[in-house]
UniProtKB/TrEMBL annotation:
Listed name of the protein: Thymidylate kinase
Family to which the UniProt record says this protein belongs: Belongs to the thymidylate kinase family.
Species the sequence originates in: Drosophila persimilis (Fruit fly)
BP GO annotations: dTDP biosynthetic process; dTTP biosynthetic process; dUDP biosynthetic process
E.C. code: 2.7.4.9
TM stretches of this protein: none
Listed Gene3D superfamilies: P-loop containing nucleotide triphosphate hydrolases (3.40.50.300)
Name of the gene this protein is made from: Dper\GL10538
Length: 211
């Protein structure tokens, strides 16, 4: 089934401090400057009911079993699926800062089974492109000390990076690996070029689901 003019779903992924928020903002500004209706989102969305639990978990003010917080992160995405579908079908392009792959990477890095981690993501809307900002975790230390949140530790971030690398290999048809060591401007030029091309290709394409 084909659809009319729809927006594209662009996702940014990568470890802490790799530049996702910086690049999400620049891509949104770029697309808007081209007259493309664009909306920015990020996960976790900390305002919703699940988001508030996630926020207190990340700031270390509550403890939950690994399985429970994993399912909360996934539920947080499911909470927004109707909105995402509606916006895309209305022709709005969405730029999303972290998505299902962060969910899998951070929990699998704790040692939980990869397939178990991925299972609750099945059925969510599949991105048209994932921009994976990749670099060795110790390169990111020069961007300031890790903060106080639960996962902001070098050794853990290295494990997270290994899972992202694995997903990037598996999902190479729509993942774009970008060298996050380049300057902000260089990265933006690379990403905006890919996004502009894909933006034109999604017209008439149905929305796909993560399988
Ligand atoms: N999490 C999870 O466990 N499960 C899930 O399902 C999801 C998330 C969705 C909160 O994430 C935590 O939730 C996260 C994963 C977990 N835990 N950790 N760690 P968040 O998205 O709220 O926060 P974050 O992404 O971890 O961190 P961040 O600080 O927002 O990083 P960033 O957005 O990638 O980077 P940035 O803010 O764009 O840039 C960081 C700094 O580097 C800043 O000073 C920039 O000016 C600088 N920068 C950016 N680009 C460059 C370049 N190219 N060169 C030099 N300096 C740069
Ligand atoms: Mg960020």
């Amino acid at each position: 089934m084909s659809v009319g003019k729809r927006g594209a779903l662009f996702v940014f992924e990568g470890c802490d401090r790799c530049g996702k928020t910086t690049q999400s903002r620049l891509l949104a500004e770029f697309l808007k400057s081209k007259g493309i209706p664009t909306l920015s989102m990020n996960f976790p969305e900390r305002e919703s009911s699940t988001g508030q639990v996630i926020n207190s978990y990340l700031t270390n003010s509550n403890d939950l079993p690994d399985e429970v917080i994993h399912l909360m992160f996934s539920a947080n995405r499911w909470e927004y699926m109707n909105k995402i579908r509606k916006e895309l079908l209305a022709g709005t392009t969405l730029i999303v800062d972290r998505y299902s792959y962060s969910g899998v990477a951070y929990t699998a890095a704790k040692g939980l089974d990869f397939d178990w981690c991925y299972a609750p993501e099945r059925g969510l809307i599949k991105p048209d492109a994932v921009f994976y900002l990749k670099t060795a975790s110790d390169n990111l230390l020069s961007r300031g000390k890790y903060g106080e949140e639960r996962y902001e530790k070098l050794e853990f971030q290295q494990k997270v990076a290994e899972v992202f690398n694995r997903i990037c290999e598996q999902e190479s048809s729509y993942w774009h690996q970008i060298d996050a060591n380049q300057s902000v401007a260089e990265i933006h030029t690379q990403i905006s070029g890919i996004a502009e091309k894909l933006q034109q290709q999604v017209d008439g394409q149905p929305l796909n689901k993560l399988a």
